[in-house]
């Protein structure tokens, strides 16, 4: 079978990781990436020797790139013309504009969480509704928090006899490492409830009632979410632990091992020598799991920069009908990304 | 009636505020404060002109104080001999040692949350179990988080037909403003669950099952707690709001008014010209309240430096039998501290 | 002599403190403050019982204030008509617009550092160029960093035989306590050199060559500046210490006393019970002073919220010719603000 | 020529990078690394498939490693017996104890900056005093700040006619990314002057007078240092820029390119796909360079985790007499580490 040809629009924090992710899939080919200006990320691409071809979107000034000796492979239109599917990680709102171009060329696309739901036919999560994405032209991924959250909620739902409702508290980082665009200094900031992540979860898993409160906190190394899940039947700590152990993209860690918080996970990913110090798995603390009556409470950590990459690969597989089922699709992604290698 | 004579041991973050609190009670007299070394707080007391008499605990070097022209009124023993009740806010563990001195002199004492429960006869909260403290010799206050949390949980329990269980997420500051002793930089840190605050809540309110997860966050302006409360009957958002409006030490705020997070509360208290920029009330965001099935979820902010002062005043009232009931005791405290003035 | 009548435009972080400062001057009368919207600061003014009359600037919606039972004394025009001089701490740029109103009414005004220099006749500092402000109609204050910096540089210049040049490094806070408008998380940010504070210093003290580098740091409790000062003759550590000891708005502190950094100063000001936890003095660490060849190096901490208040009071004194000399003007300000009380 | 056999003691933040650095040197062989406990870094080594052999130091509990299926190659003694030279990055103080073992086996060693100077025969910097290290048995590296600082100061000293003195301001991070051991929240902390880095610089470059002030700041992504350098003759901005351009381990960056601060450098290193997101070069902002009379002022950023790796490799080359001169030694290190590839 021919490899599926993939392009990436927007070579920023997410776009770089999407490109790296596609490059690792044995059954896909990364045709190139597109961007507007010689950002630090593009300068780094140049310094790395241009492992990916660069295309320029409309509005880019070619002279800026020439002045820096950054090779340009062509225009955004040219890139779209060469691919089967685009991964769009442009700044929020631009994806919707790009969609017109994709439609003109008859190219499928997957949008990231920053776009409005209306941009896509299906709001997608590899584990929760893979089948809905089969053959779809336009998918939208859940945001980083929702993607990681649903991995664990979908897992409990399937493995523990069905869930009725969840109530979440999201303690979210306000900036990525190296980010100067947003900030918060010595302050917690609260959003109006319910948080959009809870609402989004209900869109993907309509049979579960969800609500929650989100608090911004001045850190950069990932979000922590606490989840209170109410099942149709009592869920014990042991039941939950066994269920989570079967979720490939959920890494079970503990304070005793030395995982003291979100920053330990970032350090560990760097110590692993992972590219960019990234981690695809959410971490779930075994020593955070407690029973609350018949309900179960636990905490996870979300590596916000990389967590949506696997589900986006799942999305390509579904949209292109590369694998027909949730199990096959996610397993193929996991294999190529090396997810689960840590398990004995 | 003679004023009740009160002393304060340990003139640190809490001790200063206890002294200020007692000085405001029209039916109490602050005899003096005791400490060990010429800390910044003691130097500030000197610069203020010694509004409170200073006594030295064992181990203090008198010459250090003399060299700085800081007047000394006597020894710790001397202070104990002049009071009816001591408020002990010494560093953790010292209170237990001091207790021997209190017992020798037949003086009552109230210990802060840093001491072990065993130090006291009663683990006390002004609203939740005032009557248990009546006439007791040794009380221990709940910690700052637990004190503020119980205000709202006790309120729902009394006003909404009884609670069955609560599940909390504590997002706690790691240092006070101006604190160099503890810290955390760009990292969230998680504790083993359940958090001690949930366990403490059950000690004070044994009929409510409580559990929770605590996450440390690198900020200084107070904790934020989210609470998921399950009643014996459904609790609607309106029911909860009406109940909270009747809790005098709970200030209802909203994001729309400009209270964006814990730091807004600190700023507001400074704008009010409150001494030290302190606030006695917990803040409860009306726009954080959401229903989760029959349960109710909400978020509060805890001003960690001052929140336990009113309940400590309540404790004096109970231990000294100044007022016989929860209503009378807490109302007297509120009147002298000016709590509730903001209400129309 | 009649008291000088003063109004304040803009009741934000600086405006509140200007109002408090004027209220403390025995020879001035605070007529009122003006603002646009019921901010948290205005709500706090209401909760305090309206110690200052409130006037509304153009564009304010009276109904918003009425709905909150906030008394309004009149319009901005009305306020201007009642005063001799306005202190303008409006958001940057608005002061220039307001100036037209002041000119129409023949009212003097002092603008804060956020306005462009062109707004005023004189760029003013109470210690460095008081005489230039005598009788002037429009003064502009130096910014918080420059105000504090000049106190120490002017002092060395006068007391140590004249300065040739200074090179400064400014480590600046990015937000005030309680500020959600600006931020920076886990990052230092550098500005293009030279910093405007160095340039401003040369405008005020044209005989001293100044340059410097500014680095933003994610803290809220004040700036720290290191200064390398080159005199016409060698300046020893002892000479510098003796000079600084004669600068009334410079508080000499040390690490040994417990002043570990900028946050210690904030804590100390709160411990002093100062309104809002403010401090007017810059702090200068005696144990930071080191000799570099014939030059002298030292570090100061700038309490950014309150530091410009005394020099603004000086400005009123100069513009209104209340005192004829630098010595008399600054001494009057210091007396009313209680500056220097800490000295033995 | 046989490859030089190298071992690493202490597989923490620095030890991991030393091991990686040695593994990249074509003329060295990494025999193995030694540590005490199954830390996160050791667990990551296991998950990576044990690219480096692990030896256990005295006090390690073998059973802990067996329980985690972590292969152990032997004892610390065994490792020492197989190498020509040890790189010791043990916790401060342990290196001195280890030195006895090295002496017994007649093995050379290089200690990191945390050890006291007395541990070594020579206090070493690859560019400033390579020749002093030739054939030495025990070297001690300068600390991260001093290492990066000396690169630029030595460069100016050699290229601009000699330096007389430098005055530095160090704005230092308090923790590494992922570090929970140290912290500081919303506070700057100042050390007694002069900073040890200035003193250390004079030890390495005794002909230059150095002093400075150090301020701790709550960030994790590297230190920023401002330097005021006084030459024997005037140093202009152009002279400085040309000099720095010839320093291979100093990367010239600018705010206009997008390097806004220390965090931009960390992000860029991650974007480059560098292992662990590390960077060996210090960054020097071209738009920070300003003239102060005849002196020159500039700012650099220090990547604290990796900056000492190249100079440690230089140290091996000097101690083992692999290259006889500063130029040859540092060039060999640079070639193997890929330093300078970014230059056109």
From TrEMBL, chains A, B, C, D:
Q: Name one Pfam family in it.
A: Gp_dh_C
- Gene3D superfamilies, per the entry: Dihydrodipicolinate Reductase, domain 2, NAD(P)-binding Rossmann-like Domain
Q: Which GO biological process categories is it annotated with?
A: glycolytic process
Q: What GO MF annotations does this protein's record show?
A: NAD binding; NADP binding; oxidoreductase activity, acting on the aldehyde or oxo group of donors, NAD or NADP as acceptor
The cellular component terms of Gene Ontology attached to this UniProt record, alphabetical and capped at eight, are:
cytoplasm
Active site residues according to the UniProt entry:
144
Is Endoplasmic reticulum tagged as a keyword? no
Residue ranges constituting the Glyceraldehyde 3-phosphate dehydrogenase NAD(P) binding domain according to the UniProt record: 4-144
Sites binding NAD(+) sit at 35
Q: Which UniProt keywords apply?
A: NAD, Nucleotide-binding, Oxidoreductase
The name this protein goes by in its record? Glyceraldehyde 3-phosphate dehydrogenase (NAD(P)+)
What organism is the protein native to?
Pelolinea submarina
